Amino acid sequence: MRIGVIGGSSCSGADAALARETGRVIALQKHILISGGMGGVMEEACKGAFESGGITVGILPGEDEKGSNKYLTAALPTGIGAARNIFVVKASDALIAIGGWYGTLSEMAFALNIGRPVVGLNTWKCSINGRDAELITAVSAAEAVEKAVKAASALRRYDL
Q: What do you get for the CA distance between the two ends of the chain, in Å?
């Protein structure tokens, strides 16, 4: 399964640790980690997965690998800037949002709009007119990965 990890290009120490642990859990469960391939949450998640023997794919905003993190198994330059957020979402079976700012919020919105499950860890709370978005919440990396896999499995009918 392809699990996207989204979050800010800079992050707090707590979010960095959470991202690293999330990447580690993804790798140990033999899933593929998809990210924007840059720093912050993306780098920390990739580091956790890479150091645990996992596969990490970075969908990069630039024309080349400049600025990408060193924990990518595959770096895919797009040359389309922040529009690459749509590719991160489309390449993922489910997403885990950790912290983040408006770029993370846009990825969450793209995902929810097309029916991709999003699990939130210390991230945006989304609602309008008293109606909450279909954001799945978790309090730990292990719980987030478990919920992401379960939600994607229900949609894609994976044999796990």
A: 10
The answer to whether residues 57 and 84 touch, using CB atoms and an 8 Å cutoff, is no
The answer to whether 23 touches 48, Cβ cutoff 8 Å, is yes
Q: The pTM is what? A: 0.95
Q: What b-and-e string marks burial along 33-57, b requiring 16 or more CB atoms within 10 Å of the CB?
A: bbbbbbbbbbbbbbbbbbeeebbbb
Residue 139: closest CA among 33, 51, 14, 48: 14
- Domains annotated for the chain, with CATH where assigned, are 2-156 (3.40.50.450)
Is residue 51 within 8 A of residue 134, CB to CB? The reply is no
Q: At 91, is the secondary structure helix, strand, or coil?
A: coil
Compute the distance between CA of residue 28 and CA of residue 8 in angstroms, rounded to an integer. 24
pLDDT of residue 113: 93
Among 109, 120, 115, which Cα is nearest to 86's?
109
Per-residue tokens: 90: 């489309």
